[in-house]
C-alpha cells in the first residue's frame, strides 16, 4: 500500500519499520498521518511473519507534536463533535505485537505522547522530549497527563506539563522515560537488534507479556497480579512453552513456532 506521510519497510522478513515522513513540518502529526500509521500497524499486527514493529522519524525530529496549523482554527464545537485530532490515536493502543519507538531529535507534545504509546523507547543522544502544549494555551490531549506521570512520577510530569520545558536524552533515561540511549548513528541498529530479538521469541509469550505489563498501568495491583497469573498459567497450554523449556533442559537452541 502506498502512503503519503509515512514510509514503511520490512527488515529480515520479521520487523516492520515505519518512518514518519513529513520533513517540512518536523513530522507534525495530522489526521492523515495518524490514519496511515494505524493502518500500517494493523496490517503488520495481522501478518504472521511480523514479530515486532518500530516507529521512527528523522534525525532532527521524531515528531514535533500535533500539527498546530491544522488545529489552530478549530472551535470547541468542531473539536468535540468531530473528536478531532485525537480520534484516530487509539488504534495504536489496540496493537498486540510489540512496538518500539526509536527517537531522534524532537519528540514534543503529541510526538512525546506517540512515543509513550509505544511499548518502550530507545533514544538517540540528541533526542529531546517535552509536553509544550501549555505554551499554546492547551494541555496534552493524547495521554501526556496520564502516561507521563505513570512513567516518570508526579514531580517530573508536573514540571514538564506546567513549564513545557524540554528534557534531553540523558535526563529522559535517568527518569525512566526511555529504556536505552545510544549515539545517533547506532539508533536503528539498536532498535532493530531489539526488535529482531523479540521477533525470534514465542509470539504468544511476547503478546502475553505486553498485555500483562500494560495491565500495570490500567488497574489495581491485585487485579494486575491476578491477570498476570492467569496468563502465566495459560502459557503452559502452548507448544512454545514445551519447546522453550525442553530446549533449556537439553541445552539446545529453541525453535518457536508460535503455536
Ligand atoms: N505543527 C506544525 N508545524 C510544525 C510543528 C507542529 N507541531 N512543529 C514545527 N513545525 C514546522 C514549523 O512551523 C516550521 O515550518 P516552516 O518552515 O514552514 O516555518 C518547520 O516545522 C520547522 O520548524 P522551526 O523552524 O520552528 O524549527 P526549529 O528548529 O527552529 O524549532 C521546534 C524546532 C523547537 C520543534 C519548534 O518547531 C517548535 O517549538 N515546534 C512546536 C512544538 C510544539 O509546540 N508541539 C506541541 C504541539 S501541540 C500538541 O502536540 C498537542 C497534542 C494533543 C494531542 C494530539 C491529539 C491526539
DSSP strand (E) fraction?
A: 15-25%
Report the uncertain regions. Answer: none
Named once each, the bound ligands are: octanoyl-coenzyme A
Overall shape:
globular
Q: Output the CATH class name of the largest domain.
A: Alpha Beta
Number of helices: 11
- The strands making up the biggest β-sheet line up spatially as 1-2-3-5-7-10
Number of structural domains: 2
First CA to last CA: what distance? 29 Å
Structural class computed from helices and strand pairing: alpha/beta
- CATH domain topology of the largest domain: 2-enoyl-CoA Hydratase, Chain A, domain 1
Rg: 19 Å
Order of helices and strands: EEHEEHHEEHEEHHEHEHHHH
What do the pLDDT scores average to? 94
The named CATH superfamily of the largest domain: 2-enoyl-CoA Hydratase, Chain A, domain 1
Helical residues, percent: 40-55%
Number of strands: 10
InterPro entries: ClpP/crotonase-like_dom_sf (IPR029045), Enoyl-CoA_hyd/isom_CS (IPR018376), Enoyl-CoA_hydra/iso (IPR001753), Enoyl-CoA_hydra_C (IPR014748)
GO molecular function, one term: 3-hydroxyacyl-CoA dehydratase activity
Function: Could possibly oxidize fatty acids using specific components.
Pfam families: ECH_1
